Amino acid sequence: MADGTFRNLTERLGEWFLRKQELQTARARLPRPDGPAGRAVEQARLLRQVALQVAESQEELPPGRRHAVLLTLYRDFVYWALVAKSENGAAIAPDLAASWRQMPGDRLLSAAGSADNLETLRRLLVDLSPAASLDATDEEISRVRAFGDELYEDLEASQRRVDRILIQRWLRVAGACAAALTIVFAIRAIIVGPDLAARRPLRTSSTLAECVADSAACADVMFHTREENDPWVEFDLGGIKSIRRIDVKNRIRCCQDRAVPLIAEVSLDHVHWKEVARQSGDFATWTAKLPRTPAAFVRLRVPRVTYLHLADVKIH
């Protein structure tokens, strides 16, 4: 019983995230690209794009009536749009008049908006002769174009449905991944504990003159000493704390070898120091894991003549 409930819950969650059934149903409504409806959709898209280019072209066109050209393009577009939306198995109508008669009246009425407008559109697209098209007005072209836009929206509805489901799928998956990462980082923060060095004062054995007052030359480090013997950086934890790890990020841009060997030391009284960890090889990041160790001060030191500069230090 419990196994069945768990399986059912898993399947429901999987469907909510991936939406497989809805996507399958939506894709089943798409016309096959190599079928009559698919070819009709392709042709309708092409004709609509050409009509838009003619209507909105800023280039100089040859003399003639652009409205008549647009009517011709929209006649062909409407024909192919109606073919694409015709009932499965229906024979392809030989022309727009036949296709118009085959299409259920409610579909055409929905795209036209009113019976009077539909009758005007039928006259413009089906009955009007090429010669009479030369006298088409701006208002008539606007009606035809709006009708074509409605048909196009209906034509693309199935593809938009598929696109929406895919977007929802990836948004939900991305959201779940983001939530999982947030939980992981939150758990890690709880396990690791707060950064005891955050917003606490630090001191260095010296400061390179070029790295004062937020110099751009040292933007990638938290401090930079002069070249000297035994350079160090020291963190005041504000009282005795129990620490168990020190995370060190070396400078990325250059000179990582300057921080080697790096010694980590702790002190309770700022007088007596005890070494708790040492990194003897080159490193980009170093985590010194310690047994629970009491410390009021933590110092990182390089026991040789060198510069010392680090990108970040965290103490937990």
What does this structure look like?
With 316 residues, the chain is an alpha+beta fold. The protein has two domains: 125 residues; 114 residues, Jelly Rolls, CATH 2.60.120. It contains ten helices and nine strands. The strands form two sheets. Strands 1, 2, 4, 5, 6, 7 and 9 form a seven-stranded antiparallel β-sheet that branches. A two-stranded antiparallel ribbon has the order 3-8. Helix 3 runs antiparallel to helix 4, helix 4 packs parallel to helix 9 and helix 7 crosses helix 9. The longest helix has 36 residues. It starts with a helix and ends with a strand.
Strand content: 15-25%
Low-confidence stretches: none
Structural class: alpha+beta
Q: Assembly state here?
A: single chain
Give a quick account of the main beta sheet: strands, pairing sense, barrel closure: 7 strands, antiparallel
Distance between the termini: 46 Å
Q: Helix content range of the residues, please? A: 40-55%
Quickly count the helices.
10
Query: What's the average pLDDT?
Result: 87
Shape: elongated
Q: What are the secondary-structure elements, in order, as H or E?
A: HHHHHHHHHHEEEEEEEEE
